[in-house]
Structure formats: structure tokens, C-alpha cells
Amino acid sequence: MSKSGDLPFSTTIEVRDRCLCLRVQRAARRLARRFDEALRPFGLTHGQFSILMALNRPAPPTIGQLADFLAMDRTTLTANLKPLHRRELVTLAVDKADKRSRLPSLTDEARALLAEAAPIWRATHDDLDAGLTDPAELRERLAEIA
Length: 146
What we know:
This protein is mainly alpha-helical. Helices cover 65% and strands 10% of the residues. The chain has helices spanning 9-18, 20-39, 46-55, 63-70, 74-86, 108-130, 135-145; strands at 90-95, 98-106.
């Protein structure tokens, strides 16, 4: 058995250079900060923007469907919906098929806000894409993991 202090520094370097999770997390944090800054004038974080965009559909999803789409657990999603609900950007209707369940949907105010924010999101993405060698390839590779 090795002692806890016996882990060689070379292992740290290996993790730094090889760990996909670390690289994706670092990239996600940097992207999040970039999009948070771009969406700040609308009073939205990138996470809130993503939730609202995921609700921009003809029929409201269940919380479970939305959580699956966003790769979030239901509890985290519910907590993230609360400020959007308080801000009157999201309504929560009772699901007629299951009275215990709620169906989140966008308000007219949220739809107007998304219409204003989408061009800024698009411009931020255009700037980001311009700095990447092959953004479509990156999206495809990330989709393989997601």
C-alpha cells in the first residue's frame, strides 16, 4: 500500500494533459462566463437562457423531459426555475395527466426577452466560432459524449 503522499507529480501532469472531464469543465466555465457577460443586459445567465430556450416549443414539457434535455437532475432544474417563475418569465401549470406534476412554459414576456437576447447570443457564438478551427466538428464530438 502506498501512503497518501506517494502520488507522483507525474500523475498530476497526466491528469492535466489527458483528463477530458477537466478540459470540458474548464472550457464550460470559460464559455459560461463569456455568455453570462453577453446576456447580463437582459438580466439572464447562460443557464437561464438555456432553460428558457428549451421551453421555447409548441407544447410544454414535463419537468423530467426538460431535465433530461438539459442533462440536469430534477431538483436542480426546479431550483433554477424558481427565479424565472418569480420574474414571471415561466408559468408552472398542473399536468392534467398527472396532478402531482408541473408543466413549465414561457410567458409572453419571456418570449419577447428571448427575441431580444437571441441576436446577442448569436453574435457571441459567431465570435467564438471565428476563433475555432472547426466548430462544427467540435459540436459533433461533444454530442458524442453528451
